[in-house]
Write a structure and sequence with these properties.
This protein is mainly α and about 180 residues long. The protein has helices at about 10-30, 40-45, 50-60, 85-100, 120-145, 150-155, 165-170, and strands at about 65, 75.
Length: about 180
Amino acid sequence: MNNVDPIIFGSSTMYERLCLVTEVLGAFVSGAPRAVSAGQLSRMTGRPERELIRLCNALCREQLLQPLPERGGGWRLAGDASRVTLEDAFRFVIAEQSARGRPRQRVAPEEGNADGCRPDGTRREVDLLVMQAAMGINQSVFQHLRQFSLDRLKVAAAGMFPGRRMADEWPSAWPAGRLSYS
C-alpha cells in the first residue's frame, strides 16, 4: 500500500479500522448463520480477544450483530449475510469515529466577525460549496461500497478453490491466473 491509498478514507488509522471491521464482519458472513466466539475471532484475526469483544459489542449497538449469551457467548449477524456490504463497515467506522467526539480545532478568524464571515460573505459561500462537495462525495462513496457484499469472502473462507489434486485431474478447467471477483 502506498501513501496515497488511505487518503480516500481520511487517514491510515481509519483505513486500518475499516479493514479490521471488514475482516470481523467477513468472519460472521462466512460463518452465517452460526455464531462466532471471541476466541474464534482472535484466531482468525490475530487480535486480542478483549479488543474484539469491545468491537463486537459496538457492532451489536449498531445492530449489525446479535449477542448470544445463552450459547456460552459469541455473536451472530443480525441480518441476512448476503446483505452485509462494505458500506455497512464504513458507516460503522464513521459512526464510531463521531461517537468519540473529537473536538474540532477552530482557527480564530483573521478578519471579519466572530463566526469567520468576511464582510462580503465569502466564508459562508465557501462553507456551502465544501459542504455540497462533501455530501456528493459521501453519497458516491456509499454507493460504491454498497456494491461490495461481504459474502464474497465466504468463497475464500469455505475453501472453495480447487486443491492441487483436482487441478491436476482437470487442468483445462482451471486456467492459471484467472480469478474473478464478480
